[in-house]
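Figure 3 (text version): structure tokens given as input.
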């Protein structure tokens, strides 16, 4: 902790002439620049979230450690990594122009790598379960989708005979409506949940690609943003999420309730540290209503590769008493849990 703090606050002494200008920690040298992502990572690991936010704000506002958010050449030289991804997402609001574009490329490279690694494991867990739920569409005349069939075959229209040659037929499904599962993910976007926000975005994209799954994704603090239309591109989704702010879990769950259409085939996953900023009674009442209607509710104190959360244990216990299941899971373990539910 002393080393991490000295890296930043030692600049105060340098400004007063206590240390020599040759000290590599005082900024400006390439070696110092390349340690910034590691320094930010250690700040987050060693200090509580609110303290870490203050230290990072001092770094930018008081001591001018703006290399990562203002210098295109510095950012372009850094090796893409998960820690650099978190750093970029923390400071993306301060980036502009070509710096923002190189930051977006870094985010896309790391996110796509994460997605490839996770997709294989998740598909192995869920593919068989979902395929068993699907039924072949009956290719009978009463199920034909005339509008889609005509549109698909217009290129085969014979002008001389004034006939439409049907090479491909499309049919309505009479059973899919009842077989799809609906997953609603509500993700706490406060600064302390950054790892879980990243993995939630990646997992939502993987779920979206699987058969028989409809997916909604919400980000919330004291307000709620529906990101469902952006699930297909986790990079743009993450670049659009605003980190920080308060927390209103009850409000997010209330919005989830409005999205439920078939309760017995709906799963609500709330990713949060359970530090509720609104009235707890609102959140608990919403969980009870969802459970009584038949919805499965899973509260995730963490969704990342370590699954070692810092969360409000008492509030989590109250959520369990209201009917929710609460856990801290890796993405692979979440897939296993979903596999059990789908069975």
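Below: residues designed for each position.
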């Amino acid at each position: 902790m002393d080393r991490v703090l000295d890296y930043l606050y030692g600049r105060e002494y340098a400004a007063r002439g206590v240390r020599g200008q040759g000290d590599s920690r005082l900024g400006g040298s390439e070696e110092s620049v390349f340690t910034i992502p590691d320094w930010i990572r250690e700040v987050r690991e060693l200090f509580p979230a609110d303290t870490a936010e203050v230290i990072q704000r001092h770094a930018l506002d008081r001591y001018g450690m703006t290399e990562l958010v203002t210098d295109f050449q510095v950012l372009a030289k850094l090796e893409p990594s998960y820690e650099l991804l978190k750093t970029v997402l923390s400071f993306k609001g301060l980036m502009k122009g070509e710096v923002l574009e190189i930051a977006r490329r870094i985010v896309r490279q790391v996110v796509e790598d994460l997605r490839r690694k996770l997709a294989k494991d998740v598909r192995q867990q869920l593919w068989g379960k979902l395929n068993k739920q699907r039924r072949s569409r009956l290719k009978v005349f009463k199920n034909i989708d005339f509008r889609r069939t005509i549109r698909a075959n217009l290129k085969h229209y014979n002008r001389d005979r004034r006939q439409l040659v049907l090479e491909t037929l499309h049919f309505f499904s009479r059973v899919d409506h009842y077989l799809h599962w609906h997953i609603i993910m509500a993700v706490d976007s406060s600064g302390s949940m950054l790892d879980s926000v990243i993995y939630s975005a990646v997992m939502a994209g993987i779920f979206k690609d699987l058969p028989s799954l409809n997916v909604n994704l919400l980000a919330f603090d004291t307000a709620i943003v529906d990101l469902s239309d952006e699930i297909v591109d986790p990079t743009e989704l993450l670049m659009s999420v605003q980190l920080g702010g308060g927390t209103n879990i009850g409000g997010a769950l209330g919005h989830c309730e409005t999205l439920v259409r078939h309760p017995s085939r709906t799963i609500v996953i709330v990713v949060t540290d359970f530090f509720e900023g609104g009235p707890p009674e609102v959140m608990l009442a919403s969980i009870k209503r969802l459970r009584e209607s038949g919805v499965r509710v899973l509260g995730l104190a963490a969704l990342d590769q370590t699954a070692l959360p810092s969360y409000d244990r008492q509030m989590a216990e109250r959520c369990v008493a209201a009917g929710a299941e609460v856990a801290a899971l890796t993405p692979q373990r979440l897939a296993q849990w979903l596999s059990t539910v789908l069975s």
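The first strand starts at residue 157 and ends at 158.
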